[in-house]
Amino acid sequence: MFDRYEGGEQAILVNVDFPNESAREDVEELALLVSSAGVRTLDVVSTSRRAPDAKLFIGSGKTQEIADLVQGSKADIVIFNHRLSPSQERNLEKVFQCRVLDRTGLILDIFAQRARTHEGKLQVELAQLRHISTRLIRGWTHLERQKGGIGLRGPGETQLETDRRLLRARIKSILARLAKVEKQREQGRRARKRAEIPTLALVGYTNAGKSTLFNRITDSTVYAADQLFATLDPTLRKIELKDVGPVILADTVGFIRHLPHDLVAAFKATLQETRDADLLLHVMDISDERQEDNQRQVDAVLTEIDAAETPQLLICNKIDRLDEHTARIDYDDEGVPQRVWLSAQTGEGCELLLQALEERLARQMVVEHLRLPPEEGKLRSQLYQLDCVEAEQILENGDMLVSVRMPAVEWQRLLKNYAGRLTGFAESGNELAS
């Protein structure tokens, strides 16, 4: 059995064009994925087939051509832009005499590099374990000569069963930990719902500029880079919107075409923030010529995680890369914002995004003018804490004339807390000069 290389710094990429549109992958995207993984591309081999070969995925002639290329260029790894079966990987490694990685394995490797939080590392490990559980046998091919019958059972089966048992135990342990994390996240979501705080989730194709936009409007320092899957771990921040109040904004992992199912399953707790959001901010790289296809891929993933029915606001990002661009808001026939054109990098149009969010989320506002006696200082203090006081005037007898503007929900909560006393303080028609 050949020595399996641990390194992966230099790679040969392989892409196959199939007649079926759904089976095709983008070569440029593969190059970006490889670059994000920290691997240098030596050469790209493209070929066409009507259907994958059951044994080698590609034809025997092309396989030998790549094997000669590997030997001549001293490549460490061959990366396929498609999903390979365990047997195909094993057969190709025998011919190439180096490691073979498919698209799913490459994405998992990038996720393993990017995960920073404990939760993110657990999610990536779970996806990796599920992926390699079907590939355990290839490391023990020299022990695969067992046959049924007494005296003919070799140690290979025992080793494989041990590995599978250890894998199952580790997966069970990770699932238990992630279930605890999901329970904690669910408690946070329930608390936000009780407080009636809207939740917004940034979604979009990977490298569309979500984290840059997140940092721009929240004054955060979330890691953002011009590379695929720069963000894995969800980040929540609170922002204040006029006539809306506090809003929770969530930065989430980027999507990609043919996102591995193992990843979707592993990142269930993370993607739950997307599914439970009140509004999705779908960020698109408007300068990317593939943006329409990318948008369809994002919608497909949203459907897969049961978030397709959540309202969306489209964010056309990176307008600074277009020859002619204007920051603007596009409205529908009913005057509801549907698209915002901006540049998260330069900040152009970001104030329009906040305006569009206020228009989409604005709640019914209540304007009241209250006459509070001196002994209601506690109520006056609470009104200032709610940041709803627009003007105030102290009368000679010590009474306080206070003009307030707040969401109807908060007004009703005050009425309930003060057992209707607020209505007795109302001074209808006496608006104060600010």
TrEMBL record:
Q: Which UniProt keywords apply?
A: Cytoplasm, GTP-binding, Magnesium, Metal-binding, Nucleotide-binding
User: Required cofactors, per record?
Assistant: Mg(2+)
Example GO molecular function: metal ion binding
Q: Which residues form the signal peptide?
A: none
Please tell me one Gene Ontology term that the record gives under cellular component: cytoplasm
- SUPFAM superfamilies xref list: EF-G C-terminal domain-like (SSF54980), P-loop containing nucleoside triphosphate hydrolases (SSF52540)
List localization entries.
Cytoplasm
Q: By its UniProt entry, which CDD domains does this protein fall under?
A: HflX
Q: Where does GTP bind?
A: 204-211, 229-233, 251-254, 317-320, 343-345
Please tell me where Mg(2+) binds in this chain.
Answer: 211, 231
Q: What is known about what this protein does?
A: GTPase that associates with the 50S ribosomal subunit and may have a role during protein synthesis or ribosome biogenesis.
Assembly mode:
Monomer. Associates with the 50S ribosomal subunit.
Question: What is the name of the protein in this document?
Answer: GTPase HflX
Q: Which organism does this sequence originate in?
A: Aliidiomarina minuta
Q: Which gene encodes it?
A: hflX
